[in-house]
Design goal:
Blueprint: E1 4-9, H1 13-24, H2 26-33, E2 37-43, H3 47-54, E3 59-61, H4 64-68, E4 75-78, H5 86-95, E5 99-102, H6 105-122, E6 126-127, H7 138-145, E7 151-157, H8 160-172, H9 176-185, H10 194-197, H11 200-214, E8 224-225, H12 233-241, E9 244-257, E10 260-273, E11 285-292, E12 296-303, H13 307-324, E13 355-365, H14 370-380, E14 385-390, E15 398-405, E16 408-409, H15 410-422, E17 426-435
Parallel strand pairs: 1-2, 1-4, 2-3, 4-5, 5-6, 8-10, 10-17
Antiparallel strand pairs: 7-9, 7-11, 9-10, 11-12, 13-15, 13-16, 13-17, 14-15
Helix pairs in contact: 1-13, 2-13, 5-6, 6-11, 8-9, 14-15
The structure holds L-homoserine (HSE).
L-homoserine (HSE) binds at residues 159-161, 196, 201, 304-305.
Length: 439
């Protein structure tokens, strides 16, 4: 059988990795796919660099539309990233009856509903394993491996840049700004790191996982996003003393609030007990914890970025698409795990309604009655205390009091913090970090 023809849009780090792994393992991949997979065309801004990677055999063009409109191309591999022109290119490829493989989480989180609807109508596949957690086959696991289950929650370290920064802050006791600068110098963080450090990249990935875990549309706009740029080294240290690690977690969970079911969709720094495996995921690694009713808890770990780990996911999609290209579209695995007519209409819950535990740090004038005031306010709000840490008084007899609460609703904690900040012996604002036991 003739090889299937793929056209790459972009040949940066992931594109080059994809090309090299396809070349290196071509025989193994052909045996798996049932036919060869050939990169027949590449669109690249830097055509000379592209030619150095693919040689003279592969056609290199400057215009990505030349790839999506070429009748010889069966699969378009979108590795350009960003919203536009990626969206237009993917929709054009679909309109031309081509299958699409993409690593573009931002595109899918924001425009996935439109893209999957177009693909469904045209009977083509849009595969996106590389969009979430790089080389970890978490999309395959959620969509197919766990299809017997009612999935209850997904919680993950799904951004390597921030995990690297948090690991360094903890190991070396450095502050956020210093570590970010080092991470940029080492090439771990982008020159513009905003999407990574402010949690947006993780929220894109979480939005995609929530859609396939629960059979809901992509609802990025409903996600709650907090990054790590405000996190202070002192809180990482206190958390350690209390037996916790702070990680940037993406959490999505089915929850019932006042009798109605909804979905939590949130990214924020989170205290996790040190004893949990996921708390020990360090450096730029990713991990995703899935809780489901039949299988229980499963954990997926690996490299979330990089040329060949991401290429591994892109090529797995190419193999899937090659195997299923001739199959009746109704017999394929649905794009978002559930059949399009069977999607659930569950609302994303406002953050104020979420139930979780909290780490609170209050900077106080160390005087008689401070602790009594804090505990009274929390008790009046119905918030139960799990642990308290009080440090030695320092400058001007001021000190930190750290309180770990049991689970409560976010709105009750917010109200209590408002009252605590009005106390005359409380200095500045209360630091509030959410805590998940993940038990
Ligand atoms: N920038 C991402 C990270 C990798 O740091 O994990 C690509 O999604």
């Amino acid at each position: 059988m003739k090889p299937i023809k793929a056209g790459l849009l972009g040949i940066g780090t992931v594109g080059a990795g994809t090309y090299h792994v396809l070349q290196r393992n071509q025989e193994e991949i052909r045996r798996r796919a049932g036919r060869g997979i050939e990169v027949a065309m590449v669109a690249a801004r830097n055509m000379e660099r592209a030619r150095r990677i693919v040689g003279e055999e592969v056609e290199v063009v400057a215009d990505p539309f030349a790839v999506v409109n070429d009748p010889e191309i069966d699969i378009v591999v979108e590795l350009i990233g960003g919203y536009e022109p990626a969206r237009e290119l993917v929709l054009q490829a679909i309109a031309n009856g081509k299958h699409v493989v993409t690593a573009n989480k931002a595109l899918l989180a924001l425009h996935g509903n439109e893209i999957f609807e177009a693909a469904q109508a045209k009977g083509v596949m849009v595969a996106f394993e590389a969009a979430v957690a790089g080389g970890i086959p978490i999309i395959k696991a959620l969509r197919e491996g766990l299809s017997a289950n009612r999935i209850e929650s997904v919680a993950g370290i799904i951004n390597g840049t921030t995990n690297f920064i948090l690991s360094e802050m903890r190991d070396k006791g450095l502050d956020f700004g210093t570590v970010l600068k080092q991470a940029q110098e080492l090439g771990y963080a982008e020159a513009d790191p905003t999407f990574d450090i402010e949690g947006v990249d993780a929220a894109h990935k979480l939005t995609i996982m929530a859609a396939i875990a629960f059979g809901i549309p992509m609802q990025f706009a409903g996600s709650h996003i907090e990054g790590i740029s405000q996190l202070q080294a002192v809180d990482i240290r206190y958390a350690e003393q209390l037996g916790y690690r702070i990680k940037l977690l993406g959490i999505t969970r089915r929850t019932v609030v006042d009798g109605a079911e909804g979905i939590e969709l949130r990214v924020h720094p989170t205290l996790i007990p040190q004893a949990r495996l996921i708390a020990n995921v360090e450096g730029a690694m990713n991990a995703v914890l899935v809780k489901a009713d039949a299988v229980g808890t499963t954990l997926y770990y690996g490299k979330g970025a990089g040329a060949e780990p991401t290429a591994s996911a892109v090529i797995a999609d190419l193999v899937d698409v090659t195997r299923l290209a001739t199959v009746d579209p109704t017999s394929r695995v649905p794009h978002l795990a559930f059949h399009p007519g069977e999607m659930a209409d569950l609302p994303i819950l406002p953050m104020e309604e979420i139930r979780t535990a909290y780490y609170l740090r209050v900077y106080v004038q160390d005087q008689l009655g401070v602790m009594a005031d804090l505990t009274r306010i929390l008790a009046e709000a119905g918030i139960s205390i799990d642990a308290v840490l009080q440090k030695e008084p320092g400058e001007k007899a001021r000190t930190d009091i750290v309180i770990i609460t049991h689970q409560t609703r976010e709105k009750y904690v917010n109200a209590a913090i408002g009252k605590i900040e009005q106390l005359s012996h409380v200095v500045g604002q209360v630091v509030r970090i959410r805590l998940e036991t993940l038990g």
